[in-house]
Amino acid sequence: MQGSESSVDQRRADDTVTGAGVLPALNELPLNGLSLNALRVPGEPARRLAVGLFPGAGAVHLYHALDSGYFQQAGLEVNLFEVVSSDQQIGGWNDGDYDIMHTSPDHLLRGLLRRDPVAVQAEGMGELAVHRRPGPPSPTDRWAVDNARSAFAFVLRAVLADVADSPVDDSQLVAVGGALQRFQVLSTGAVDGTTLHPPFDVLATEKGYPRLGGHLQVAPDILTGVVVVPRTVATTPHIRAYLEVCRLSTAELLTSGASGIEAALVRHGLPKAVARAAAPGLLGTAGLSTSPDVTLRGIEAVADLRRRFSPAWQPPCPLQSLIGPSPEH
C-alpha cells in the first residue's frame, strides 16, 4: 500500500497564511469549551490513524488540517493513503489497511465491506456533473465510470436519461477508475464523456467537454461523501477528535473563502490552475457547506438511485444500521 506524502508536519497552526490573510488557529477556537489540545488523551502518545481516500480537491479540509498541524495538536498522527478506484479502496479497507475511510456512501450499500463499517460524518466535494464532448449524446457513446455499479455511474445514467433524454445501458460503460483517471482518459478519445466533480468539471469544460447536467437535477438528496469507521471504534476519543478536526478545518476554509481554499490546495502541492478551478464548486451547493450529519434520508436517496438502475438489488442490512453516532457538536 502506497501512502501519500501527507503525514502530519511540525509547522505552527498560527503560521497558516492564505490569500485572505492569516486564519485563526483552530487550537485557539472553542470546541464545546475545549481546544484541540484538550482532545488529546492525557498521558498517551499520538494515536496513529491510516486514512484511505481518493486524492483531490474534495480532501482540502484534510490537507489543510494536516499541513497546519491541527491533527497533531489533537494527539493524532494521520497518514493519507490515496486510491485510484473503489475496488482498491474496498480491498484496502477489508484488509485492515485503513482505520478511517473517506468514501461514497454507496460503498456501504454494496455488501462488500467487512469490519462492520458505519458512516459517522457526511461531507461534500461539490456537485457530481456529467460532461461530454461537443454534440448531442449518441447510442454509440462510451462513458467512463469507476465501475458500472458505482454511484457515479448511476448519476451519469440518471442525468443522461432525465436531462439529456439519452438513456445508456451497461454495454456503454467503461471501467476506468476515480475522477482523476476518468478526466485523464477524456483527452485520449477512448470515451465520449464521464461524471466528474470539482476541479475536474471546470477543467473538462475548459478542454472542450461541456456539462450536460448534475446530480442536483436528478438526485438532489443523495449524500456524495461520508467518513466511515468500524462500528466498534465509532465513539472512541481518537475518532471523535479526528471528526472534530475535520469539521473545524472545513469551517475555517469556508470562512476564508476562495482564496483560502486555493492557498490550502497549492500549499499541499496542487497546481494553481487546479486549485483555482476547484474553489467555486467547493464553495457551492453540495460542497464544503454540506451538513456533517449523516441522515437516513440521504442514505435512502443513495439506495433509491441504486435501485433505479439495479431493480433486483436489496440492501445488505437495514439502512439505519449503516449510520453511526455523530460527533458531539
Shape: globular
- Determine the fraction of residues in helical runs and give it as a percent range: 25-40%
| Poorly predicted spans | 1-22, 26-33
Q: How many H/I helical runs? A: 11
Note the quaternary state here. single chain
Strand runs, count: 12
Q: Rg, please? A: 19 Å
Q: Helix/strand/pairing class, anyone?
A: alpha/beta
What is the CATH topology of the largest domain? D-Maltodextrin-Binding Protein, domain 2
H/E element order: EEEHHEHEHEEEHEHEHEHEHHH
Main sheet makeup: 5 strands, mixed
Question: What strand line-up does the widest sheet have?
Answer: 4-3-5-12-6
Give structural notes.
The protein is of the alpha/beta class and 329 residues long. The chain has two domains: 13-125 and 224-322, Periplasmic binding protein-like II (D-Maltodextrin-Binding Protein, domain 2, 3-Layer(aba) Sandwich); 129-218, Periplasmic binding protein-like II (D-Maltodextrin-Binding Protein, domain 2, 3-Layer(aba) Sandwich), CATH 3.40.190.10. Helix content is 34%, strand content 16%. It is built from eleven helices and twelve strands. The protein has helices at residues 60-67, 70-73, 86-94, 106-109, 151-162, 179-186, 200-206, 215-218, 237-267, 272-283, 296-309, and strands spanning 17-18, 21-22, 47-53, 76-82, 100-103, 117-123, 129-132, 143-145, 173-175, 193-196, 211-214, 225-230. Strands 4-3-5-12-6 form a five-stranded mixed sheet, sandwiched between helices. A five-stranded mixed sheet has the order 9-8-10-7-11, sandwiched between helices. Strands 1-2 form a two-stranded antiparallel sheet. Helix 1 crosses helix 9 (237-267) and helix 9 packs across helix 10 (272-283). The longest helix has 31 residues, at 237-267. The two termini are 34 Å apart. Mean pLDDT is 90; it is low at 1-22 and 26-33.
